[in-house]
Backbone:
């Protein structure tokens, strides 16, 4: 019998542990906190290092009813809760989410432009309806996001919210507001290891501690560029384990948003029979995208469909059980 | 494990002690044995060019030249699948070469009619993804009843219905023999040899000249079996990690260890492709597909699915296609003019990029709308609309060049061109670059194109 020496990597680096949310003792009002990161090995390789924190799921909720814009399988799954932020948050909790992700929008239910006051009200509603940690994601429109996120940061002062996305072209205002009010930020770059490092450095240079920065490496949906994000995440995680300090942030990605943009999730009619049942295929699209990203290193996945959430949660539990 | 030039030199006439009398004779066409060794290491020369290498050295060199994960071929009536021969742990390091073969389980408890229907459904399943026809690869006929006649009938029913590569699943050599008797014209995978039956299975594999899977629930158990089987003359092997290695955590860890042992340690006894059975650990179809997806990514060669549902296999096939594309070159289409639905001179003109995913997203929408159109595909080095725009490969100048270069002006009687909604900012510049043309901003997503063409063109 040959001797089998399983190749175990001796990694020198560790992913940083980042804490979302603050309890009363820590100056917030959350019922508990969620810690992500801390990995000492590639995802779920328990033979190499003790598993760190479990990847967590953040269900996306909105203050503006997306029923017009979202695909039927998604709209049917949440029903009337889509038009009632409190009900939606409760339903997300019931679906098993670890964190609530409030997605800000450009307009409100009346079609009017969103603004600081409306964003402030939305985050207040979420904070009052749940004890879970909260992530607040902007629209990608710099001016509006800055206006809204400053108000959100003030309203949630001390809650250790996650505010994002900070992008290379627009990060200063959000980072400053997050620092002033004890929050975290996400640093989003378009699928590139070096750009990701660079943005972490820039944000850190403003005085933001590294323990309060989460990397968003950007992702695409299954079939629409997912593999680029998958590989960039593997490379970022390898760099982190090899000891590259500026790549050691936990990673957040948005498979829910990406998957539900795909035609496979959106279209029920006029598609090939080989695509199968619409609702089933659509949920699979989100599930498969999220699962692949978790296996390539995601620490937080922002998701949309309760059934996809349930499956991914189950998968994570199985992977952590080793 | 590939040898370095110096390691090879130590086996050549000039490098052995004492040196061979012909050392550095130049007959191989190189000035010295060392120079020849360097060329061998770079795979720019053939060992046969030197007549003076000892047989022992030849054996060592050819063993070292063998791929760290053996290539295994299954075939049936001209259709074949190949797995193994992978060289990296991560796709970004180079690429993954042989996509995991996806097989569907056929239990022999089904009636002959049910078997034929299932087999045909699997064989006929085909789904188009960015111009590629994605398909399932074969069937795994399993003896559930443990009964030779029944198994033989099931294999015969499959063979009568379709010509697909096969896996035959049973641990009972008698049952396996009965199944193999029905496989003329096929090189199936025999699954599986265990510590208890390997001698009988080895005999069957040799007679059938078919690859053999070994089943054990530890690395040591698998290695022990492959060593016994190679010693018995069966070389085409596949690993079937069982027990705790069936589930999410166990599979990820065991398969990662196997890939690392093969690639990083050159550990021959485990240098074979792997077969997995996700349905054994994940009873619900939804979870089975997730586990299958994990195994496609990390690091299975054959994945046997317990059920067939198009809504489940389509995402799985796309995942596989994504992970097995070469990360160095995006899938692309030829730049140029693409007429869709027999366009005439008044048909709309649209412009997009030559990234396959982008092109097909747009072309499929126009095609299924039934509306005629001219689709101009710019050479954007295989990038999506926004990526190319951000990288300066899909700017006003490039679009103008595409419009002019394709000679579309001679094919249509109007001067209007639709650009993707995502690059609406190019409008002004483009009007300058294309005097006389009206630039129209289309919708952001291709799904909305048909409505746009009906209402706003
Ligand atoms: C995958 C990806 C990559 C891959 C490349 C994939 C490829 N081959 O193109 C990689 C990782 C290499 C990459 C690199 C970069 N990327 Co990139 N990337 C993406 C990502 C995640 C998905 C793109 C994609 O494939 N979409 C799917 C295809 C099908 O979409 P599409 O081409 O737009 O087509 C749709 C529509 O436009 C429409 N459509 C298409 N044609 C037409 C035609 C008409 C007439 C109409 C009406 C409609 C229409 O239909 C399609 C379906 O709806 C996006 C972010 C995202 N999630 O969207 C960022 C993104 C496009 N990238 C971005 C950037 C900045 C870059 C880089 C410049 C980063 C850098 N500095 O290195 C580089 C540039 C490349 C280089 N320098 O070599 C930015 C662009 C920002 C902006 N708004 O300008 C994005 C939006 C990310 C972001 N939010 O910052 N990227
Ligand atoms: S043929 Fe080449 S390698 Fe062989 S002994 Fe002569 S010089 Fe050396």
Residues:
């Amino acid at each position: 019998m040959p001797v089998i020496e399983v190749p175990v990597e001796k990694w020198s680096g560790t992913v940083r542990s980042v804490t979302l949310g603050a309890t009363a003792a820590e100056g917030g009002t959350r019922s508990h906190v969620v810690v992500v990161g801390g990995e000492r090995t590639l995802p779920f390789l328990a033979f190499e290092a003790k598993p760190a924190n479990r990847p967590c799921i953040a269900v996306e909720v909105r203050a503006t009813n997306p029923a017009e814009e979202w695909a039927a399988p998604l709209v049917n799954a949440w029903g009337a809760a889509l038009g009632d932020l409190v009900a939606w948050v409760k339903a997300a909790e019931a679906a098993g989410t670890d964190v609530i992700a409030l997605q800000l929008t450009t307009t409100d239910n009346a079609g009017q432009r969103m603004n600081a006051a409306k964003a402030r009200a939305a985050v207040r509603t979420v904070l009052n309806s749940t004890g879970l940690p909260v992530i607040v994601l902007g629209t990608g429109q710099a001016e509006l996001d800055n206006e809204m996120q400053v108000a959100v940061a003030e309203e949630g002062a001390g809650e250790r919210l996650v505010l994002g996305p900070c992008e290379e072209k627009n990060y200063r205002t959000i980072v400053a507001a997050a620092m002033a009010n004890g929050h975290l930020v996400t640093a989003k770059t378009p699928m590139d290891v070096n750009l990701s490092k660079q943005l972490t450095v820039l944000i850190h240079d403003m005085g933001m501690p590294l323990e309060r920065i989460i990397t968003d490496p950007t992702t695409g949906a299954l079939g629409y560029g997912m593999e680029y994000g998958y590989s960039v995440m593997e490379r970022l995680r390898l760099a982190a384990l090899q000891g590259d300090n500026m790549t050691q942030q936990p990673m957040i990605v948005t498979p829910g948003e990406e998957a539900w943009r795909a035609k496979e999730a959106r279209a029920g009619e006029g598609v090939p029979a080989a695509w199968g049942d619409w609702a089933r295929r659509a949920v699979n699209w989100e599930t498969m995208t999220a699962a692949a990203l978790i296996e390539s290193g995601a620490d937080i996945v922002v998701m949309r469909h309760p059934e996809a959430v349930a499956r991914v949660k189950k998968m994570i539990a199985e992977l952590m059980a080793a | 494990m590939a040898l370095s030039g110096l390691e090879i030199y130590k086996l050549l006439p000039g490098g052995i002690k004492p040196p061979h009398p012909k050392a550095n004779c130049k007959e191989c066409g190189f000035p010295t044995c060392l120079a020849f060794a360097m060329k061998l290491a770079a795979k720019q020369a053939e060992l046969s060019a030197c007549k003076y290498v000892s047989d022992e050295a030849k054996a060592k060199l050819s063993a070292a030249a063998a791929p760290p994960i053996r290539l295994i071929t299954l075939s049936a009536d001209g259709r074949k699948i190949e797995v193994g021969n992978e060289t990296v742990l991560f796709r970004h390091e180079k690429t993954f070469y042989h996509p995991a073969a996806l097989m569907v389980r056929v239990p022999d408890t089904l009636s002959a009619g049910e078997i034929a229907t299932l087999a045909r459904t699997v064989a006929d399943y085909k789904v188009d993804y960015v111009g590629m026809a994605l398909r399932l690869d074969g069937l795994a006929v399993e003896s559930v009843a443990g009964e030779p006649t029944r198994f033989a009938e099931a294999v015969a029913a499959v063979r009568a219905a379709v010509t697909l590569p096969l896996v035959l699943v049973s641990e009972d050599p008698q049952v396996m023999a009965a199944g193999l008797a029905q496989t003329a014209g096929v090189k199936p995978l025999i699954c599986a040899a265990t510590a208890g039956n390997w001698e009988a299975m080895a005999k069957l594999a040799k007679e059938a000249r078919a690859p053999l899977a070994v089943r054990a629930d530890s690395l040591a158990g698998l290695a022990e079996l492959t060593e016994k089987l190679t010693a018995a003359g069966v070389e085409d092997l596949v690993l079937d990690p069982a027990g705790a290695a069936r589930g999410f955590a166990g599979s990820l860890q065991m398969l990662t260890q196997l890939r690392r042992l093969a690639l990083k340690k050159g550990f021959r006894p485990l240098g074979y492709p792997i077969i997995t059975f996700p349905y054994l650990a994940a009873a619900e179809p939804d979870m089975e597909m997730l586990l299958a997806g994990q195994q496609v990514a990390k690091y299975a060669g054959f994945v046997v699915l317990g059920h067939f549902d198009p809504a489940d296999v389509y995402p799985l096939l796309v995942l596989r296609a994504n992970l097995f594309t070469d990360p160095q070159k995006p899938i692309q289409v030829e730049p140029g003019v693409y007429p869709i639905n027999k366009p005439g001179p008044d048909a709309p003109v649209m412009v997009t990029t030559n990234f396959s995913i982008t092109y097909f997203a747009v072309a499929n929408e126009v095609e299924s709308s039934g509306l005629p159109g001219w689709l101009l595909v710019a050479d954007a080095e295989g990038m999506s609309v926004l990526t190319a725009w951000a990288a300066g490969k899909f700017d006003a100048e490039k679009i103008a060049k595409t419009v002019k270069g394709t000679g579309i002006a001679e094919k249509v009687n109007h001067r209007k061109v639709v650009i993707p909604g995502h690059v609406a900012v190019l409008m002004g510049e483009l009007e300058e670059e294309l005097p006389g043309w009206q630039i129209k901003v289309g919708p952001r997503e291709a799904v909305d194109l048909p409505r746009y063409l009906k209402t706003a063109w």
Q: What stands out?
A: Chain A has a mean pLDDT of 96. The CA atoms of residues 92 and 312 of chain A lie 14 Å apart.
